[in-house]
Amino acid sequence: MSVEIKQVKDKDTLRQFVRFGIDLYEGNEFYVPPLIFDEIATLSPDKNPAFEHCDAACFLAYRNGEIVGRIAVIINHKANNIWNQKNARFGFVDFIDDTEVVDALFHEAENWARFRGMEKIHGPLGFTDMDYEGMLVQGFDRIGTFSTGYNYPYYVEHMVRLGYVKDQDWLEYLITIPDEIPERYFRAGEIVKKRFGLETIHIQQKKEVMAYAKEIFGLINRAYKDIYGYVELTEKQINYYADMYLPMLRLEFLSLIVRQDDNKLIGVAIGLPSLAKALQKAKGRFLPTGWLHIYKALKKNNDVLDLLLVAVDDEYQGKGVNALMFNQFISAANKIGIKYAETNLELETNNKVLSMWKNMETEQHKRRRAFIKDL
Predict the structure, then answer these.
(1) What's the pTM?
(2) What gap in Å lies between CA 204 and CA 209, rounded to an integer?
(3) Hey, what CATH topology would domain 4-170 get?
Protein backbone atom coordinates (compact mmCIF):
# COMPACT_ATOMS: atom_id res chain seq x y z
CA MET A 1 0.00 0.00 0.00
CA SER A 2 1.15 3.55 -0.70
CA VAL A 3 2.75 5.74 1.96
CA GLU A 4 1.44 9.23 2.70
CA ILE A 5 3.65 11.91 4.27
CA LYS A 6 2.07 14.69 6.32
CA GLN A 7 3.73 17.61 8.07
CA VAL A 8 2.97 18.06 11.76
CA LYS A 9 0.91 21.23 12.14
CA ASP A 10 -0.70 21.11 15.59
CA LYS A 11 -0.09 19.99 19.17
CA ASP A 12 -2.21 16.85 18.93
CA THR A 13 -0.27 15.59 15.93
CA LEU A 14 3.02 16.58 17.58
CA ARG A 15 2.08 14.38 20.52
CA GLN A 16 1.45 11.52 18.07
CA PHE A 17 4.86 12.24 16.52
CA VAL A 18 6.53 11.87 19.93
CA ARG A 19 4.38 8.92 20.94
CA PHE A 20 5.30 6.93 17.81
CA GLY A 21 8.98 7.10 18.76
CA ILE A 22 8.09 5.34 22.01
CA ASP A 23 5.46 2.88 20.79
CA LEU A 24 7.78 1.47 18.10
CA TYR A 25 10.03 0.05 20.84
CA GLU A 26 7.35 -1.39 23.10
CA GLY A 27 8.76 -4.46 24.82
CA ASN A 28 12.38 -3.69 23.85
CA GLU A 29 14.53 -4.16 26.95
CA PHE A 30 17.30 -1.81 25.78
CA TYR A 31 15.28 1.23 24.68
CA VAL A 32 14.97 4.13 27.14
CA PRO A 33 12.01 6.41 26.32
CA PRO A 34 12.14 10.17 26.76
CA LEU A 35 9.55 11.97 28.83
CA ILE A 36 6.79 12.94 26.43
CA PHE A 37 6.42 16.48 27.72
CA ASP A 38 10.19 17.08 27.39
CA GLU A 39 10.28 16.01 23.75
CA ILE A 40 7.16 18.00 22.91
CA ALA A 41 8.79 21.09 24.44
CA THR A 42 11.97 20.51 22.42
CA LEU A 43 9.97 20.44 19.19
CA SER A 44 7.71 23.41 20.04
CA PRO A 45 8.69 26.89 18.78
CA ASP A 46 6.90 28.52 21.71
CA LYS A 47 8.95 26.50 24.23
CA ASN A 48 12.42 25.90 22.80
CA PRO A 49 14.55 29.06 22.41
CA ALA A 50 16.63 27.31 19.72
CA PHE A 51 13.86 28.26 17.29
CA GLU A 52 15.18 31.83 17.44
CA HIS A 53 17.95 30.72 15.08
CA CYS A 54 16.55 27.45 13.73
CA ASP A 55 13.87 26.45 11.24
CA ALA A 56 12.38 22.99 11.55
CA ALA A 57 9.63 20.73 10.29
CA CYS A 58 8.34 17.38 11.53
CA PHE A 59 6.86 14.78 9.19
CA LEU A 60 4.86 11.62 9.80
CA ALA A 61 4.51 8.68 7.43
CA TYR A 62 1.12 6.97 7.24
CA ARG A 63 -0.05 3.73 5.68
CA ASN A 64 -3.76 2.92 5.77
CA GLY A 65 -4.19 5.68 8.34
CA GLU A 66 -1.59 4.19 10.70
CA ILE A 67 1.65 6.00 11.59
CA VAL A 68 4.64 4.00 10.36
CA GLY A 69 7.49 6.52 10.54
CA ARG A 70 8.61 9.97 11.63
CA ILE A 71 11.42 12.43 10.92
CA ALA A 72 12.33 16.00 11.86
CA VAL A 73 14.49 18.20 9.66
CA ILE A 74 16.26 21.24 11.11
CA ILE A 75 18.23 24.14 9.71
CA ASN A 76 20.42 25.64 12.42
CA HIS A 77 21.35 28.96 10.82
CA LYS A 78 23.73 29.84 13.64
CA ALA A 79 25.65 26.59 13.16
CA ASN A 80 25.83 27.11 9.42
CA ASN A 81 27.22 30.62 9.90
CA ILE A 82 29.83 29.43 12.41
CA TRP A 83 30.96 26.43 10.38
CA ASN A 84 30.49 28.13 6.97
CA GLN A 85 28.14 25.42 5.76
CA LYS A 86 24.75 25.01 4.15
CA ASN A 87 23.70 21.93 6.08
CA ALA A 88 20.35 20.66 7.23
CA ARG A 89 20.04 18.23 10.12
CA PHE A 90 17.70 15.28 10.41
CA GLY A 91 16.74 13.84 13.77
CA PHE A 92 13.92 12.39 15.87
CA VAL A 93 13.79 9.71 13.19
CA ASP A 94 12.09 6.34 13.60
CA PHE A 95 10.46 3.97 11.16
CA ILE A 96 9.32 0.42 10.59
CA ASP A 97 11.60 -1.81 8.53
CA ASP A 98 10.05 -0.95 5.17
CA THR A 99 11.86 0.47 2.14
CA GLU A 100 8.86 2.42 0.87
CA VAL A 101 8.33 4.10 4.24
CA VAL A 102 11.98 5.04 4.70
CA ASP A 103 12.33 6.33 1.14
CA ALA A 104 9.22 8.49 1.47
CA LEU A 105 10.34 9.99 4.80
CA PHE A 106 13.84 10.90 3.68
CA HIS A 107 12.64 12.10 0.28
CA GLU A 108 10.37 14.59 2.06
CA ALA A 109 13.08 15.71 4.48
CA GLU A 110 15.69 16.11 1.74
CA ASN A 111 13.31 18.07 -0.49
CA TRP A 112 12.38 20.37 2.40
CA ALA A 113 16.07 21.11 2.99
CA ARG A 114 16.93 21.42 -0.71
CA PHE A 115 14.08 23.89 -1.30
CA ARG A 116 15.61 26.12 1.41
CA GLY A 117 19.01 26.21 -0.24
CA MET A 118 20.81 23.54 1.76
CA GLU A 119 23.61 21.59 0.10
CA LYS A 120 23.99 18.67 2.54
CA ILE A 121 21.94 16.91 5.18
CA HIS A 122 23.44 15.12 8.18
CA GLY A 123 22.30 13.45 11.35
CA PRO A 124 20.78 12.20 13.49
CA LEU A 125 21.29 15.54 15.21
CA GLY A 126 19.03 17.86 17.16
CA PHE A 127 18.87 21.58 17.69
CA THR A 128 21.79 21.49 20.14
CA ASP A 129 24.24 19.07 21.73
CA MET A 130 21.67 18.62 24.50
CA ASP A 131 19.43 16.67 22.10
CA TYR A 132 19.93 13.09 20.97
CA GLU A 133 22.86 12.70 18.58
CA GLY A 134 24.03 9.83 16.44
CA MET A 135 22.58 6.55 15.22
CA LEU A 136 23.57 3.46 17.16
CA VAL A 137 25.83 1.20 15.06
CA GLN A 138 27.29 -0.91 17.90
CA GLY A 139 25.79 -1.89 21.24
CA PHE A 140 22.25 -2.85 20.28
CA ASP A 141 22.18 -5.30 23.21
CA ARG A 142 23.06 -2.68 25.85
CA ILE A 143 20.59 -0.51 27.70
CA GLY A 144 20.70 3.16 26.76
CA THR A 145 20.86 6.25 28.96
CA PHE A 146 18.39 9.07 29.40
CA SER A 147 20.57 11.38 27.29
CA THR A 148 21.09 9.03 24.33
CA GLY A 149 18.72 7.50 21.82
CA TYR A 150 18.30 3.93 20.66
CA ASN A 151 17.51 2.42 17.28
CA TYR A 152 17.08 -0.98 15.69
CA PRO A 153 19.99 -2.38 13.62
CA TYR A 154 17.98 -2.11 10.40
CA TYR A 155 18.14 1.70 10.58
CA VAL A 156 21.81 1.61 9.62
CA GLU A 157 21.13 -0.63 6.62
CA HIS A 158 18.59 1.85 5.27
CA MET A 159 20.96 4.79 5.71
CA VAL A 160 23.62 3.07 3.62
CA ARG A 161 21.07 2.06 1.01
CA LEU A 162 19.94 5.70 0.69
CA GLY A 163 23.49 6.85 -0.05
CA TYR A 164 24.37 8.28 3.35
CA VAL A 165 27.99 7.93 4.46
CA LYS A 166 29.83 8.31 7.74
CA ASP A 167 30.40 11.88 8.89
CA GLN A 168 31.48 11.36 12.51
CA ASP A 169 31.41 8.59 15.12
CA TRP A 170 30.98 8.85 18.86
CA LEU A 171 32.17 6.23 21.34
CA GLU A 172 30.72 5.35 24.74
CA TYR A 173 32.42 3.52 27.59
CA LEU A 174 31.28 1.55 30.62
CA ILE A 175 33.69 2.26 33.48
CA THR A 176 34.16 0.07 36.54
CA ILE A 177 34.48 2.42 39.49
CA PRO A 178 37.42 1.47 41.74
CA ASP A 179 36.74 0.64 45.39
CA GLU A 180 38.88 3.58 46.47
CA ILE A 181 40.57 6.56 44.88
CA PRO A 182 43.68 5.24 43.08
CA GLU A 183 46.89 6.61 44.56
CA ARG A 184 48.02 8.07 41.22
CA TYR A 185 44.72 9.99 40.91
CA PHE A 186 45.00 11.32 44.45
CA ARG A 187 48.60 12.47 43.91
CA ALA A 188 47.75 14.03 40.55
CA GLY A 189 44.87 15.95 42.10
CA GLU A 190 47.04 17.33 44.89
CA ILE A 191 49.78 18.37 42.45
CA VAL A 192 47.30 20.15 40.17
CA LYS A 193 45.73 22.05 43.07
CA LYS A 194 49.09 23.34 44.28
CA ARG A 195 50.63 24.04 40.87
CA PHE A 196 47.74 26.06 39.48
CA GLY A 197 46.12 27.35 42.66
CA LEU A 198 42.85 25.46 42.20
CA GLU A 199 40.17 24.33 44.60
CA THR A 200 36.94 22.35 44.49
CA ILE A 201 33.73 24.15 45.40
CA HIS A 202 31.44 22.04 47.58
CA ILE A 203 27.85 23.19 47.14
CA GLN A 204 25.57 22.33 50.03
CA GLN A 205 22.14 23.40 48.78
CA LYS A 206 20.51 23.15 45.35
CA LYS A 207 19.54 26.81 45.36
CA GLU A 208 23.26 27.60 45.24
CA VAL A 209 23.61 25.69 41.96
CA MET A 210 21.52 28.21 40.04
CA ALA A 211 23.97 30.95 41.01
CA TYR A 212 26.63 29.06 39.04
CA ALA A 213 24.38 28.23 36.07
CA LYS A 214 25.66 30.94 33.74
CA GLU A 215 29.28 30.18 34.62
CA ILE A 216 28.76 26.45 34.08
CA PHE A 217 27.20 26.87 30.65
CA GLY A 218 29.64 29.64 29.77
CA LEU A 219 32.49 27.21 30.42
CA ILE A 220 30.72 24.54 28.35
CA ASN A 221 30.44 27.04 25.49
CA ARG A 222 34.17 27.78 25.66
CA ALA A 223 35.33 24.19 26.07
CA TYR A 224 33.07 22.71 23.39
CA LYS A 225 33.32 25.46 20.77
CA ASP A 226 35.45 23.39 18.36
CA ILE A 227 33.54 20.12 18.77
CA TYR A 228 31.65 18.71 15.78
CA GLY A 229 28.35 20.49 15.26
CA TYR A 230 28.47 22.45 18.52
CA VAL A 231 26.79 25.84 18.64
CA GLU A 232 27.24 28.27 21.51
CA LEU A 233 24.16 28.36 23.71
CA THR A 234 22.42 31.71 24.01
CA GLU A 235 21.39 33.21 27.34
CA LYS A 236 17.80 32.08 26.78
CA GLN A 237 18.97 28.54 26.01
CA ILE A 238 21.17 28.53 29.11
CA ASN A 239 18.20 29.49 31.25
CA TYR A 240 16.05 26.87 29.50
CA TYR A 241 18.50 24.02 30.16
CA ALA A 242 19.41 25.24 33.64
CA ASP A 243 15.76 25.17 34.67
CA MET A 244 15.32 21.75 33.07
CA TYR A 245 18.37 19.88 34.37
CA LEU A 246 20.06 21.54 37.34
CA PRO A 247 17.23 20.86 39.84
CA MET A 248 17.67 17.11 39.16
CA LEU A 249 21.30 17.01 40.24
CA ARG A 250 22.73 15.19 43.21
CA LEU A 251 25.22 17.68 44.56
CA GLU A 252 27.93 15.10 45.27
CA PHE A 253 28.06 14.50 41.51
CA LEU A 254 28.51 18.15 40.61
CA SER A 255 32.22 19.00 40.55
CA LEU A 256 33.16 22.67 40.21
CA ILE A 257 36.85 23.57 40.02
CA VAL A 258 37.78 27.24 40.44
CA ARG A 259 40.98 29.25 40.33
CA GLN A 260 41.64 30.65 43.80
CA ASP A 261 43.06 33.99 42.61
CA ASP A 262 39.86 35.22 40.97
CA ASN A 263 37.31 32.44 41.65
CA LYS A 264 37.03 31.76 37.90
CA LEU A 265 35.33 28.47 37.06
CA ILE A 266 37.81 26.42 35.01
CA GLY A 267 36.37 22.91 35.27
CA VAL A 268 32.97 21.27 35.66
CA ALA A 269 31.81 17.67 35.70
CA ILE A 270 28.20 16.57 36.07
CA GLY A 271 26.99 13.06 36.79
CA LEU A 272 23.59 11.63 37.57
CA PRO A 273 22.48 8.24 38.90
CA SER A 274 21.13 6.35 35.90
CA LEU A 275 17.51 7.06 35.02
CA ALA A 276 17.36 4.35 32.35
CA LYS A 277 15.29 1.76 34.22
CA ALA A 278 13.13 4.43 35.83
CA LEU A 279 12.25 5.91 32.44
CA GLN A 280 11.47 2.44 31.10
CA LYS A 281 8.98 2.02 33.93
CA ALA A 282 7.54 5.50 33.33
CA LYS A 283 6.96 4.70 29.62
CA GLY A 284 7.26 8.37 28.70
CA ARG A 285 4.81 9.63 31.30
CA PHE A 286 5.82 11.85 34.22
CA LEU A 287 2.37 11.47 35.78
CA PRO A 288 0.83 9.77 37.62
CA THR A 289 3.77 7.60 38.76
CA GLY A 290 6.68 8.40 36.43
CA TRP A 291 8.01 11.01 38.83
CA LEU A 292 8.17 8.42 41.60
CA HIS A 293 10.28 6.02 39.51
CA ILE A 294 12.64 8.90 38.68
CA TYR A 295 12.84 10.02 42.31
CA LYS A 296 13.74 6.51 43.46
CA ALA A 297 16.41 6.20 40.77
CA LEU A 298 18.00 9.46 41.87
CA LYS A 299 17.85 8.75 45.59
CA LYS A 300 17.85 4.98 46.12
CA ASN A 301 19.09 1.60 44.86
CA ASN A 302 21.17 2.53 41.82
CA ASP A 303 24.51 1.05 40.82
CA VAL A 304 25.16 3.05 37.62
CA LEU A 305 26.22 6.68 37.26
CA ASP A 306 25.74 8.56 33.99
CA LEU A 307 28.63 10.95 33.31
CA LEU A 308 26.70 13.68 31.53
CA LEU A 309 29.56 16.04 30.77
CA VAL A 310 33.09 17.11 31.59
CA ALA A 311 34.31 20.54 30.52
CA VAL A 312 37.70 22.12 31.22
CA ASP A 313 38.83 25.60 30.21
CA ASP A 314 41.25 25.57 27.25
CA GLU A 315 44.09 26.91 29.40
CA TYR A 316 43.91 23.89 31.72
CA GLN A 317 43.13 21.05 29.33
CA GLY A 318 45.57 18.16 29.49
CA LYS A 319 47.00 19.34 32.83
CA GLY A 320 45.33 16.89 35.20
CA VAL A 321 42.26 18.88 36.26
CA ASN A 322 40.14 15.81 35.51
CA ALA A 323 41.78 14.00 38.43
CA LEU A 324 40.17 16.43 40.88
CA MET A 325 36.73 15.73 39.42
CA PHE A 326 37.17 11.96 39.28
CA ASN A 327 38.42 11.81 42.86
CA GLN A 328 35.23 13.52 44.01
CA PHE A 329 33.02 11.20 41.94
CA ILE A 330 34.81 7.99 42.97
CA SER A 331 34.46 8.85 46.65
CA ALA A 332 30.79 9.81 46.30
CA ALA A 333 29.96 6.73 44.21
CA ASN A 334 31.50 4.36 46.74
CA LYS A 335 29.50 5.91 49.58
CA ILE A 336 26.15 5.08 47.94
CA GLY A 337 27.03 1.79 46.26
CA ILE A 338 27.46 2.86 42.64
CA LYS A 339 29.66 0.34 40.81
CA TYR A 340 29.74 1.55 37.20
CA ALA A 341 29.73 4.76 35.20
CA GLU A 342 28.44 5.32 31.67
CA THR A 343 30.24 7.99 29.68
CA ASN A 344 28.31 10.30 27.42
CA LEU A 345 29.07 10.50 23.69
CA GLU A 346 32.73 11.14 22.91
CA LEU A 347 33.97 11.82 19.40
CA GLU A 348 36.34 9.08 18.26
CA THR A 349 38.75 11.82 17.10
CA ASN A 350 38.75 13.65 20.46
CA ASN A 351 41.90 12.10 21.88
CA LYS A 352 42.02 14.48 24.86
CA VAL A 353 38.69 13.19 26.10
CA LEU A 354 39.28 9.54 25.25
CA SER A 355 42.58 9.60 27.13
CA MET A 356 40.74 10.40 30.38
CA TRP A 357 39.84 6.73 30.79
CA LYS A 358 43.22 5.18 29.95
CA ASN A 359 43.97 4.34 33.59
CA MET A 360 40.47 3.02 34.31
CA GLU A 361 38.96 -0.42 33.80
CA THR A 362 36.70 0.27 30.82
CA GLU A 363 34.69 -1.38 28.08
CA GLN A 364 34.00 0.49 24.84
CA HIS A 365 30.48 -0.88 24.44
CA LYS A 366 28.60 1.49 22.15
CA ARG A 367 29.26 3.46 18.99
CA ARG A 368 27.03 6.03 17.32
CA ARG A 369 27.31 7.59 13.90
CA ALA A 370 26.31 10.81 12.21
CA PHE A 371 25.61 10.20 8.53
CA ILE A 372 25.81 12.80 5.75
CA LYS A 373 24.59 13.09 2.17
CA ASP A 374 24.89 15.66 -0.60
CA LEU A 375 21.59 17.14 -1.69
Answers:
(1) 0.94
(2) 9
(3) Aminopeptidase (3.40.630)
